[in-house]
Amino acid sequence: MLAETPVPADAPWRARDLAVLWHPCTQMREHPDVLPLVPIERGEGAWLHGYDGRRYLDAVSSWWTNLHGHAEPRIAEAIARQARSLEQVILAGFSHAPAIELAERLLAIAPRQPGRAPLSRVFYADNGSAGVEVALKMAFHWFRNRGEEPRTRFIALENGYHGETLGALAVGDIPLYRRVYAPLLAEALFAPSPDAYMARPGESDEQCALRAADALADLFDQHPGEICALILEPRLQCAGGMRMHHPAYLRRARELCDANGVFLVADEIATGFGRTGTMFACEQAGIAPDLLCLSKGLTGGFLPLAAVLASQTIYEGFLDDSRERAFLHSHSYTGNPLACAAALASLDIFEGDGVLEHNRATAAHMATLAAQVGAGSRHVADVRQAGMVVAFELARDGVRETPFDASLRIGLHAYRAALERGVLLRPLGDILYWMPPYCIDEAQLQLLAETTAAAIAEATACA
Ligand SMILES: *Cc1c(COP(=O)(O)O)cnc(C)c1O
């Protein structure tokens, strides 16, 4: 049914939006009364400037994509330069300099592990979920090519997230996204999460991680010859509530994959490019995966692009005279030159500006402020940090065993309270987190901390 009166072209953007757009991850019924809708005119550094004349501090890096600030001039210029010479070309049978150079540079910075051959091939896709599909299909297909047909299953972690397409959703464990589509999903095996928040009383983060690793070992034992890969988010389960685990888990998981002849897929779509303090989270455990999925921050947050880095062993498993043994997966925009140019410019910024080192100082500052915020409310049950990510877990009286009733929608109240104060926080349930662009400065961090404290106070006031 068409709207009875078309929205006039000079109506405010909000009204025009609500007449035609269907927003992601949104119950549209809640717009705009329960859930505000904020049309943005432009971005600059950590700020988003709205058509409402207000500015908002982007504390979530626009869904964890932005690294060096919005409209970063060097990345913008690199894209413009590339657009004037080659905007897109088929990547089958043809190639281009940005795709080649980016592959070289990603392989050069990929995590390494002594005694293990480095990752040696790059396959492009155009968003994170597509990258995950590529990695899963590669792992499965590799075993097919070897005649190991019973290896059809993946192990994933409880509370993990790998994207929304059906293959990626099948290895994800967030009920809110998964439950409705369950009848459509391939059956994965789920191992307990090493999540340190779930540690038993008296148990250290490391003991908790090793207990989860023991359960993973049991799962491997129960399914001999059936598994093709283990997929996980190293160090930090982001969509699962910014839950963090001890790197000891990753070392054991790596050993178990090797012992069982199974591939390890590291989904660093969110954790990659410095988010957890090191360029890649795997580095904190001293391990390298067989397949590494990258997206989100890959282009500095400018354009959609994903890269799957594969080991030489995996690559060679597809070399044959038969087309069917080849990896025939493709996307129209595979390795788009504009996106590759943006990614190259982002890597230049990492090197030229000493971003990782700069981030160490920023992260230390974030730690101090986060501790103050945590101490300022009796409803904060946990404050945790991994590099440039800080999370505040809210629970009644700060007791983990008594989370707030979901119907109170504490997180939504905090979201609105922060937005009114000019900060974009986007809680995951009742978990508030900071995941800002790396250019965030001291004054902005101060605003972020004060606003977070105020948002927590306001949201929990009547709870
Ligand atoms: C966001 C995310 C994805 C999916 O990426 P999209 O580009 O949103 O499809 C996959 N894995 C992880 C860990 C993510 O955070």
What does the oligomeric state look like here? Answer: single chain
CATH homologous superfamily title of the largest domain: Type I PLP-dependent aspartate aminotransferase-like (Major domain)
Give the termini distance in whole angstroms.
41 Å
Largest sheet: 7 strands, mixed
How many β-strand runs? 16
Q: Return the CATH class of the largest domain.
A: Alpha Beta
In this entry the ligands are: pyridoxal-5'-phosphate
Compute the average pLDDT: 97
Assign an overall shape: globular
Order of helices and strands: HEEEHHHEHEHHEHEEEHEEEHHHEEHEEH
Report strand order across the widest sheet: 4-12-11-10-7-5-6
CATH fold node name of the largest domain = Aspartate Aminotransferase, domain 2
Q: Over the alpha carbons, how many angstroms does the gyration radius reach? A: 22 Å
Question: Uncertain runs with pLDDT below 50, 5 residues or more?
Answer: none
- How much of the sequence lies in strands comes to 5-15%
- Number of contiguous helices: 14
Question: How much helicity do the residues have?
Answer: 25-40%
Query: What's the CATH architecture of the largest domain?
Result: 3-Layer(aba) Sandwich
